[in-house]
Amino acid sequence: MTGNRVPIANHIDQDLLDSNPTILDHVNDAFDLDYDAITLPFTKPTWKTRWQRYCVSNENDVNKGRARASYIAGKSENVVQDRQTAKEAEVWRLTRVYDKNEVNVSKLDECESIIAFASDWLELDSPDEGIRFDSEMALKQEVAYASYLSIHTLILPAPKNRKHVADYARSVMAALDSTSYLQLSVMIPVSDPAELEQSGVSPALSEFKGDPSSTWEVWDAIRTLCDYSPRLGLALDLGQPLPPPCALKRWSSEPTRQIIIPANAFVGNAKGYPVLSKSCQEFIKEQIKTLPTIVLTETYEGIHKSGGSKAYVQYLRYMEKLSNDSATSVEQFASGYMDWLQAPLQPLLDNLDSSTYEIFEKDPIKYQKYEQATYLALLDKEPNSLTRIAVVGAGRGPLVQGAINAVEAAAEGRRIHIMAVEKNPNACVTLQGRMDEWNESKIASVELVFGDMRIIELEDEQKNDILISELLGSFGDNELSPECLDGAMRLLKPYGVSIPSYYTSYIAPLSSTKLYNEVMHMGDAKNAEMPYVVMFQAVNILSGMDKESNRKAVQQCWSYKHPSKYEFVMDRNGNPMTNYHNTRAAHLTFTIPYAGVLHGLAGYFEAHLYGNVWLSTHPERYDKEMLSWFPIYFPINTGVYLPTNSEVDVHLWRLTDNKKVWFEWSVEVFVKADEKRIKINQSKLHNHDAKYNRIEL
Amino acid sequence: MTGNRVPIANHIDQDLLDSNPTILDHVNDAFDLDYDAITLPFTKPTWKTRWQRYCVSNENDVNKGRARASYIAGKSENVVQDRQTAKEAEVWRLTRVYDKNEVNVSKLDECESIIAFASDWLELDSPDEGIRFDSEMALKQEVAYASYLSIHTLILPAPKNRKHVADYARSVMAALDSTSYLQLSVMIPVSDPAELEQSGVSPALSEFKGDPSSTWEVWDAIRTLCDYSPRLGLALDLGQPLPPPCALKRWSSEPTRQIIIPANAFVGNAKGYPVLSKSCQEFIKEQIKTLPTIVLTETYEGIHKSGGSKAYVQYLRYMEKLSNDSATSVEQFASGYMDWLQAPLQPLLDNLDSSTYEIFEKDPIKYQKYEQATYLALLDKEPNSLTRIAVVGAGRGPLVQGAINAVEAAAEGRRIHIMAVEKNPNACVTLQGRMDEWNESKIASVELVFGDMRIIELEDEQKNDILISELLGSFGDNELSPECLDGAMRLLKPYGVSIPSYYTSYIAPLSSTKLYNEVMHMGDAKNAEMPYVVMFQAVNILSGMDKESNRKAVQQCWSYKHPSKYEFVMDRNGNPMTNYHNTRAAHLTFTIPYAGVLHGLAGYFEAHLYGNVWLSTHPERYDKEMLSWFPIYFPINTGVYLPTNSEVDVHLWRLTDNKKVWFEWSVEVFVKADEKRIKINQSKLHNHDAKYNRIEL
């Protein structure tokens, strides 16, 4: 097991702190129990009492359940405070100083392993304007004090009032602006139980209609108002029943920094030990891949019969082990590269280095498939015949080796001659070194040709029966396979075979705060104008299968076939005179079953090699062990809100000017109302003027 | 008459050009007829013939009405071209050269006074991908040739196919990117007659239900995809019937560079002369304020009995005169400042210079109203009494003079003592110069006090009955009137009167490509984070009166009253200890009857001076002759699309930290579907971290 350790924190409540106010004792106890940190309330009830005396009158409004702010200098209509209190309140507003007995933490050395909960009685979204403003002031005081103590994260109480979510968000933004390093997390319940009940869904049911989205929608409103501040995170509270998977998966693309699991979210197993429900296990197993801090609360309350207070953390450590053990080859291979934006390779422009080849050659699937495809192609040749094969882009030789293996398996007197074409002079040295070994074979001969497959000259008798290439990028055609193979068709006899014979690009709308933030906070608007290669993790595909219109969640953009069924006008070198036949345009409509924010497009490809042999990164049918391709990500420069049951039209173009190739893209959003399709939003056209991210021919 | 000359162009069609191909002759003829320019088709039919031979096969698809592109090197399925033609087509795609006889213009000196129409047969939005790509290539050829000739504007044929509007826009953007100076105008019909008919509207009817918006919506999609390129304009084609005013007013906020009026859009008057319909006259009169080029076409066709071909331009010159003559004082005063973004004044921080006072004192209305209010306030005093008046912010003395005039009018033995308070030491010199003149009055005495109204000290017996101030900004409170008057209340006796006694801020959602472009193309994202003072012209208020919910188009944010009805905690100088009581929050919902793009908020104010005397910039009841205040503009950093019948929630806050005052704002958009209110979009929070645009206390 080589996985990561998930940080887990134990929550120390006010009662425990009152019984032993020495924070370091609690930290050390937690370490002993295999925790990594503790969480605690930042302020004491004494502070609440003082704040309320200043800012809330309990006298007149007892019957309203919640008192209104009322101070002489204030905004409220009922002035009931005495002058002395009013003056103290104004002095507080000016100075904002705690008494030592109003806070639970006061020493710098206590703060290293703690996460603090801000006062849970703050009402940043109170209907009362006075209470809102005074709550914001109290929050700023906590934030300033937390910064002073170098506390790294403050968790804010959950918003309660959808109508005043903009007020809540504004206060959060003001708090963020008032410090430089402090992280703020907004506590958000994973569901609204009232909403689940209304939808007729108990958490046990898997059938579900409708979209229990209000808690996610509140979170989305806050982070959008806060302009995706990288210091704003989400503390997901699992104290409520989990919503059905369709709604749950939405959280996977959010910046979840803490997952709060109260002890009563565990169920007792047969022996009375606390365990999580199946769906909760699945959810946690996915979530912990991004290493949020798990906050366990109420562990001392004795809610479960067996295992005691440490049973919860033990169970989580067990889940961590399960998650790490079940990681796929790709996940292990890509560990550290998850959600990491890479500029796509330009192997045509740049010569790859040997270590890059080394990584690609480690793929346990790709070369097997090529070998299998070559084998099937050779089986379709007569026994006792010679087949001429061109391997274009031979690299360090894996496809050459695969072809030799294939002819040996095909047997029955079949022989091959391989023309290994490579334009990278450095890789040619490696190829030369393998020639002796290859030419030991009785049924295969290998000839090395240095040069660009579009330029090398050859005689008619040198033409080949089979052309093997591995020029595909994450989006299929994005490393210029179509253009290179156009030029390499000269190496093939009429009716010759190309492996791959055709390939198709696929696309789907995605949501990912992580990717969006990476692109938007790189400091240059141009960064939103290029596609990236990314191993997706905190990413959610927003589109769904739409049975009515037969629309798929992941849709086909376009294909390239080799040899082409069209005849081109050729130049004197036998290459197409222009590249305009390789332009493509796609206009696709996706159905969005549950509200989300579009941050870009996910691109995949599928290639037919030969017979029944395919390569695929399509999310519904990719080979989990194949390492060679991560998906591609086309960013959109503004988060585009997609309501439940909306439709998004994606436009994507592959363009060329004969010197370069590039993609442009845009989206439009529609909802259906009164049987009509109404446009509600659209993006600009992306990448129309990007100068540096075109792919050189 | 001091108005501007509206540029008018005459269209020279191909027949006229064929009869006399010397462009300069046509230009000179146009000048003689009081035109400023000519328009003409840029290419000849010979070019169309060649392009079609290359790119379109007429053989197989004659019956489909429109042929498909089909070339050997191409993308189409039916390959019918001969090899020679296919080769010529590919050579064209590579080189793109005109024959001299394929273009109407070829000399630099011909181009100064012409606007060119791009080939009207280009199908940038054809359903056929091949035709689209080849049309784009032909457009780029025209654009390159136009740039070579320094032609400043090319008018593009109207888009025809909503489904492929993204393809159209992409080609336009590519054309813009391929040049640096050339302006492109997209021709858009003012309405879709089919749509008008469907809505049961003939242009004569003023009653109208529904929203004939498709031509506007197409334009909006194109310019949004093109990211509001400042080189992209609109050529509005009045060849179709005008839609009803509600839909028509939408065009007023768009960058209309040309208005195309075919002769047949004129009707014959009693004598057979061509005139425009009443609604068309109104529309043109508004539009020509922004000086688009009026393009008259078909003037030689003899469509009207009387007046000949020059009757059309004569009529337009007559309308130009009417428009200039009817300009209001404000329009004349603000000429040159229309849609010009100004940073709001900070008179508290900066001392105004004498010329600024001079401009403000020219207002023919404001000082009359102050005088009238003071007069009414004095009438409410006993005859034969002395009234003490403080004029705070006396400036160069207009309010002092007004008070003296008022007491002379009030008569009946009333006398006044004026304490003129001014913090600007330079203005105090001017005030000193007027003292002798003022003190000549038998019933008024004036005392000059140099200092900040919040700081100057005074004895109880110096306190005043009336406090007169003119501290209001474009949004009422935005020049810190509330804070200054809080401090000046010390100068007033208990139960004294403030003129103004209260003021209210108003807001409405607006659309304006002009203002949005000004803000977005100033090069610094911070520019979208501050309010501006602007005399609106190419601005459209998007909200409407909603009778069902009783929502108004322009809504009230908040008010300030002086003296306040609240008692504040005071510091030892008699000023409020903190400024937090002057914070405000507004959450307003507007109904949007017709689709539009929100580019920001328009702010106004209304102040009650005394009795029935008001100052107002509220668009439904402002005094057209009052010059002192332009509205305020709060920008939104992305154009937010508002569908027909949507609702927009506006959040606006006035905030303070005791040192400064600033505004923050945001919007959320909703539509109603299935009786539910569904969120479809929102903005970020604006101005939360802007450091330089807060108003210093």
Oligomer: homodimer
**Biggest interface, and residues per chain?**
A-B, 71 and 71 residues
Rg over C-alpha atoms of chain A, rounded to the nearest angstrom = 31 Å
Order of neighbouring strands in the sheet with most strands of chain A = 1-2-3-4-5-6-7-10
Question: Helices and strands of chain A: which structural class?
Answer: alpha/beta
CATH A-level architecture of the domain at 502-696 in chain A: Distorted Sandwich
| Number of DSSP strand runs of chain A | 27
Helix content of chain A: 25-40%
Give the CATH H-level superfamily of the domain at 502-696 in chain A. Answer: Hnrnp arginine n-methyltransferase1
Short structural description:
Chain A has 697 residues and is of the alpha/beta class.
Molecular structure report:
The structure is a homodimer of 697-residue chains. By secondary structure, chain A is an alpha/beta fold. Among the domains of chain A are: 48-96, no CATH class; 354-470, 3-Layer(aba) Sandwich (Rossmann fold), CATH 3.40.50.150; 502-696, Hnrnp arginine n-methyltransferase1 (Distorted Sandwich). In chain A, the strands form five sheets. Chain A has an eight-stranded parallel beta barrel. In chain A, strands 16, 17, 18, 19, 21, 22 and 23 form a seven-stranded antiparallel sheet that branches. The radius of gyration of chain A is 31 Å and the shape is elongated. At the A-B interface, α4, α5, α6, α8 and β24 of A face α4, α5, α6, α8 and β24 of B.
